[in-house]
Amino acid sequence: MDLDYISKNMEKEKEDYIWVECDLNRIKNNYRIFSEYVSPAICSAVIKDDAYGLGANEIGNSLFKEGCRYFFVAYSDEADSLAKSIWNKQNVFPSYEIGENKYSLFVLNGPFLKNWCKSYEEQKYIPVLNTLQNIIDWNDYAKSIKTLLPAILHIDTGMRRLGLPYEEFVNLKKNDFEYIDLRFFMSHLVADSIVDHVANKIQIEKVKQIRNKFPDISFSLSATNGTLQGAHMHHDMVRIGVGLYGFSNYLPGIKNGVKIYGKILQIQDAQPGEGIGYDWTFITKEEKRLATVSCGYADGIIHAQNTVFKDFIIGGKSAPILGKVSMDLTIVDITNIGGVKVGDEAVIFGDEKQLQYLSKEDMLMKKFVSRLGKRIKYVYNI
Prior knowledge:
Elements: H1 3-9, E1 18-23, H2 24-38, E2 42-46, H3 48-53, H4 56-66, E3 70-73, H5 76-90, E4 104-107, H6 116-123, E5 126-129, H7 132-144, E6 149-156, E7 164-165, H8 166-169, E8 180-186, H9 198-213, E9 218-220, H10 224-227, E10 237-240, E11 258-270, E12 275-276, E13 282-283, E14 288-293, E15 311-314, E16 317-320, E17 330-333, E18 345-349, H11 352-358, H12 362-369, E19 377-381
Parallel strand pairs: 1-19, 2-3, 2-10, 3-4, 4-5, 5-6, 6-7, 6-8, 8-9
Antiparallel strand pairs: 1-11, 11-14, 11-18, 12-13, 14-17, 15-16
Helix pairs in contact: 2-4, 4-5
């Protein structure tokens, strides 16, 4: 084997088989619309899990330029990456203060580092405190350096996932966080997309009790869907994640900012009674023209009943998925689409026709974009 040939060959321009286009202007537009909708409440951006796999550094910098000054990530390594990126592009570090060239970076899932207090304070990350021990550690550290340190206290009002249990919160007193500058209390809705869910009433009542007990401390309750329930759910800050990308017509003017494309690798005809793909789960009833598209379950494409993917869009028309999705390939029906050629683009996700029937599938869409495969190329339209 000629290793010199391989090395030279690797330098050639890579072919694009599957790629994501993120329209940063649309994402900024969506942030602006949510900000106007919730005003005077603060609109923060949740860009954990690399902004649902779409690129936290690129999206975070764009939102910073748009005026976003409150960012949530899940873990401190995500904070490290975002802080480094904003510093490199904007020459701005995280800050405990807010201003034109200052922003706050909140870490949601609790500290794990042995000396986390010192690390967070040096890097100016603001912890979301989820347990009594978190409160004690941060308060004691602030006391030791004789400095009031900011934090968010997460109170679990029903999710039973993270946060100080409500039963423990009711016994909390101000002197328990004497050296903590509590910027916000926060909680998370159990069923924010189901307006009449019984959990909403229970949680809203608990939030009312929290606010009555500490009326001078701001509150953040809602993510995207909770925010859309109305002003009574906005409180002092909302946390917008999936809404930034416009997968649904959340508010007037919101636009889809993400499209995923593949290419047609092969076209062939199938006769009535022939099986398609693994296990022949689809049998043709009439003659079909088939196209094989360059994406599969390794890229996050899952096709089954009640899941996100029903069709791709080719030439502006629907091309239904036929049979099981393979690791790298998906077969679609192009019988009713004329002029399709090998090498043509297929919109895997993000065409307006798809989003019309996906408008109530936010959770499925979030799961999909956060599972995109590593070989996918990302293109950012500025």
